[in-house]
Every structure is written in C-alpha cells, then in structure tokens.
Amino acid sequence: MKNAKLLISGLSLALTLAAAAPVAAATTDWSGWMENYYLNPEADKVVPAVYALSRSGHFEQEGQTAAAIGFLGAVFAQNPDRAADWMYQFRQLPAAHQRLVAAALWYSGLPEGVEVVRQAAQGTSADIRTDVENLMAWQQPVLSETPVQSVSSLNLQWGAFLASGNPQHIVKVLAALGSDQPVLGTQVRMALAEKALAHPRVYEICQSEIARQPEGVREQLRTALGTR
User: What start and end residues bound the annotated signal peptide (predicted)?
Assistant: First the structure.
C-alpha cells in the first residue's frame, strides 16, 4: 500500500511537471499513429511524432498528458538503447513537453533512465532542472505496477497499452472495476466499453479475463463489453 501511494504521488508530480504548455494547431493524424502504435511499432518515427503532437496541442487535450507519459514510457522501455539520443533530440521541445518526456523516461522503469534524464536536463533552464531533480527524488515507478486509482492513472495505463499491446496494462485497468470509489469504477467501465469497441485486442483481453475476475467485477466487465 505504501508503494502504491508513492507511485500515485509520483504520477501526480509527473503530471504537474508536464502541464501547461500553450495550445498550438489542431491535432494531426499523428494521434492516430499513436492510437495504433502497438499494431505496427515504428520507433524511427517517435521523435517526429512527438514534435508534431507537441505543435498540434495534442498533449494539452483532456487525459492526453498522462496517456503520453504512459505511451512514451513504454516506448522508452522497448528501446533502451535509444533513450539518450531521443532525450537529446527532444531538447527543442517547449519546456512543458520536455518535462513530459522526462517524466515518461522516469516511468519507463529503465535503470539508466534516471541518469539519462539528469544528463538531458543539464542543457535546459534552471526551472526544468529543479523540476527534474524533484521528480527524481521519488522512487522510480514501474508502469505495469502502477495501480489505477484515478482517471490519470487510468490514462497512464492506456497509453502504455497503446505502445506495447501488453495485456498487463488492461488487467491493471480491470482491477479498478472493483474500486471502492464508485465514480472511478463508472469511469473505468465507460473507458473499457469505448476502448473494447475501438480495439479488438482490448475486447479479446477483456473476454479472456472475465473468468479470472471476482463476481462483482465480472458483472461490470460484461456490462462494459455488452455481453452476458
């Protein structure tokens, strides 16, 4: 429980650090690229995608900051040998988005991620360096172990799934259906219904998990999937 609270507190800090960049042009088709990345991973396009999404204002849309941290965190984890180079290339991003990619690398769970973030921060403003050091003071989290206890952590897990297609991120979301927070449970159920409709992979994972869930969660999951 203590570790769970630390992970959630760290996520709150990461989101705070990544917030409040000016909104730019409308979202481009890079958002669709991100939405389907797990079906066709294209690591070579990560840098131009992040810059395009940054310019379009995508990261300022509701829920997208946490989703982007989860997405990029998983992409960093898949490409540890590219982390340092990517962070160097991201140095021209707006300050808020430099914080976002730093938070994503921190969330990747890569042992070398903390040092890479610190090194990348050396070429930034004093404010960003201070914010990064404050973030690094927290215990480094692992995406797949971060519980869904808020809409932000729900979006974090969703972003990680989009990057990896790994069922563990959906399973983490399913656990929140049994939350003692009724509002969160409703939000999770609605999100699962939406994502399962848009992504056959999510529907398949949810179907395969029904029998493993407690009865209360099973009923909510069946409702979300429109099955009985």
Answer: 1-25
